[in-house]
Amino acid sequence: MSKNYFRRLTLEEKLILRDKGTEPAFSGEYNDHFEAGIFVCRACKSPLYESNTKFNSGCGWPSFDDEIDGAIKRYKDFTGGRERVEICCANCDGHLGHVFTGEGMTKKDTRHCVNSLSIRFQSYKNLEQATFGAGCFWFVEKYFSKIEGIYLVQVGYMGGDIKNPTYKLISSGKTNYAEVVNIYFNPKEIKFIDLLALFWKCHNPTLLNKQGKNIGKQYRSIIFPHTLQQKKDAQLSRDIEQDNWRQDILTEIVPATIFYRAEEYHQKYLDKNNLG
After folding, report:
1. Any catalytic annotation for residue 92?
2. d(CA 171, CA 103)
3. In the prediction, which pLDDT does 1 show?
4. How far is CA 64 from the centre of its chain?
5. In the chain, what percentage of residues exceed pLDDT 70?
């Protein structure tokens, strides 16, 4: 462990990274943080985790189900009379937390339990966002997650009337929320207009408040533009797409509002349950 890396840290940060402490559960700034970017070591700034491996385990600390290759060292830890696996930054050996397996929380069956004070988030500023509603968000998430140029796909809710909605509340059909996928994409690899073309292919935009067996306003076809240019592109794309349908396209185009990430069991649902 190089002492030089830890001189610039605060006392709280040193207690974690140098002295192998643990911050209180649910106290860290990154416990409920799900933006697109990368998490680096707070001491030496080495990349550790991509944000598309982060999930909400409910444990009170940031959780990841995979690491950047070569970024993490593992040590046996017998603190407290039980054997655990400690994880440290491979570059500076700063303490991050512990890793657990066999819990079945994700398809990779791995949970890196990391202290927020051990890491720092760096946003991918070259990425843009797109938000679509096209029926059950499980299937839409699976569809877009396979596309090259898309970095992160999360399912959730947008367009409703209350704060912090839950799946149970929006299923009542009384909140005005739509089930959506929120996408971070690299416009140098795939354009928004190309995402719109995929959006039209993954559902039937002429159906009112339903897709397949799913019925309710939360399943409506909707585009939430994040910029004025996205709004113009969406309107133009809808006009062009209309030529492919006998019935009127009923897709709404409404400016993006707050995206509320859905409960963790909905994220990558089909992969977790070996469906689709």
Report:
1. no
2. 29
3. 47
4. 11
5. 99
Is the pLDDT assigned to residue 2 strictly greater than 60? no
Domains of the chain: 3-123 (2.170.150.20), 128-272 (3.30.1060.10)
Q: Which one is catalytic: 44, 59, 136, 202?
A: 136
What's the pTM value of the predicted model, to 2 decimals?
A: 0.86
**Buried residues in 207-230 as b, exposed as e (16+ CB within 10 A):** beeebeeeeebbbbbbbbbbeeeb
The encoded tokens of residue 11 equal: 């006392």
The pLDDT value given to residue 93: 96
Active site residue 136: yes
Instruction: Compute the average pLDDT of residues 178-194.
Output: 97
pLDDT at 80 over 80: no
The pLDDT assigned to 173 comes to 85
| CB atoms closer than 10 angstroms to residue 188 | 9
Backbone angles phi, psi at 275, to 5 degrees: -120, 155
CA neighbor of 130 nearest in space, from 257, 34, 225, 236: 225
